[in-house]
Amino acid sequence: MEKQKSFLPTAPYKGTRDFYPDEMRFRNWMFSVMRETVQSFGYQEYDGPILESFELYKAKSGEEIVQRQLYDFIDKGERRVAIRPEMTPTLARMVAGNVRNLAKPIRWFSVPNLWRYEQPGKGRLREHWQLNVDLFGVKSYTAEVEIILIADAILQKFRAPKGSYQIKVSHRKLLDSFLSNTLELKSEKAQAVSKVLDKKSKVSQKEFEGEMSPLLSDPAKQLPLIYSYLDSDLKSISKMPGIDPNAIEFISKLFSDLNGLGIKEQLVFDPSIVRGFDYYTGCIFEVFDTNPENRRSLYGGGRYDNLIGLFSNEQLSGIGFGLGDVTFKNFLEGHGLIPDLNRNDTVFIPILEEGLFQEVIKLADELRISGIKTETMLEPSKIAKQIQTAEKKGCRFVVFLGSDELANRTVQLKDLNTGEQVSVSRLDLSSKLKESLKV
């Protein structure tokens, strides 16, 4: 009996995705809209290596990323390296390496591929693409104004409906002063408490208090203060003992400017916003999806002071945010914001006769030179089968070139959307297609 051949699996590595042309078309469309929006504010695109020294992440990333989520290994030169889990450490290294020659403010963005070893779930994979937007060299709250305007402009560019999202804003110094002054926690305990606060929305009240109580010296007294802090608005939080008044003033000014610039209804003060990264030092914000089926953070960021301090004596404050493709796609799908991305702008030319191969290629070249995307068959087959191929590929127009059409300098143009087929002069073909395709 012949031994059955064993084949390699066709599924991708757990937590990653294959991007077939349809998925790739969506990804390209989504990030092209983001790029266009960010570039309209004067931001320039950069990139860096997907591999970095392990030490870079050990110094600049949070403990959870380094110890649990980092893909790291020893390379053939006995160096410990890691696949980037975030872009900010690479950004800090690059800015520090050329800081004196860069015109300030520095406005940069990137769309890197990022990797983290974590349990895949809805909105969370091991590999994703992420828009990163960063502004360096502006210490005043006006940097926050611009970054939040960009975060909002991206959603507006995708035509997000009114009420479909909220921009929740807080300040790390509010949290720091609450933990150290109001709750009277030492720095090590304060950091542990902040990490429990960061995941409060993801666990039940019983689980939250179960994790929080052992970290507190007097849970009966401190837990009510924590709930009061989390539920406060700008007015009530200012009356809490020990809260940093400068942070309250900062957010008040920020809200005043943003309200005057048309960002009011979607803007919310929310002191429960923590942000997981340890390098945030000032204003922090998160954009939330309000869809009941996807109530979660879409993206967020904040202020980081002296992020380049490990590389240089130069002082340079920055602010930025990251927007991942997985959660954002869920938002677009949930609110019906994805347009028809079929290949309606691509013309299809079948081969009706074997001897007309060269003429079909010449016709396709004429259309391409005119700026029209054109795909041809490379072998003749039954016409019904070739039209079926064009339909399956999502093309709207099919151009038929037979011996009679070649002799008369015409073509037959079929609209697969309507079924209409007309004879068109070869000289008029490009202009007619451009008018129909709006090229």
Automatic annotation (TrEMBL):
**What residue ranges are annotated as transmembrane?**
none
Name any one Pfam family assigned in the record.
tRNA-synt_His
List the Gene3D superfamilies hit by this protein, alphabetically.
Anticodon-binding domain (3.40.50.800), Bira Bifunctional Protein, Domain 2 (3.30.930.10)
PROSITE patterns on file: AA_TRNA_LIGASE_II
Q: Which family does it belong to?
A: Belongs to the class-II aminoacyl-tRNA synthetase family.
Enzyme's top EC category: ligase
E.C. no: 6.1.1.21
Q: Which PANTHER family match?
A: HISTIDINE--TRNA LIGASE, MITOCHONDRIAL-RELATED, HISTIDYL-TRNA SYNTHETASE
Q: Boundaries of each Aminoacyl-transfer RNA synthetases class-II family profile domain copy?
A: 15-350
Keywords, ordered alphabetically: Aminoacyl-tRNA synthetase, ATP-binding, Cytoplasm, Ligase, Nucleotide-binding, Protein biosynthesis
Per UniProt, subunit arrangement is: Homodimer.
- Provide the residue positions that the database annotates as binding L-histidine: E86, M87, T88, R116, Q130, D134, R275, Y279, Y280
User: A GO CC term?
Assistant: cytoplasm
Reactions catalysed according to its record = tRNA(His) + L-histidine + ATP = L-histidyl-tRNA(His) + AMP + diphosphate + H(+)
- What name does this protein carry? Histidine--tRNA ligase
Q: Where in the cell is it found?
A: Cytoplasm
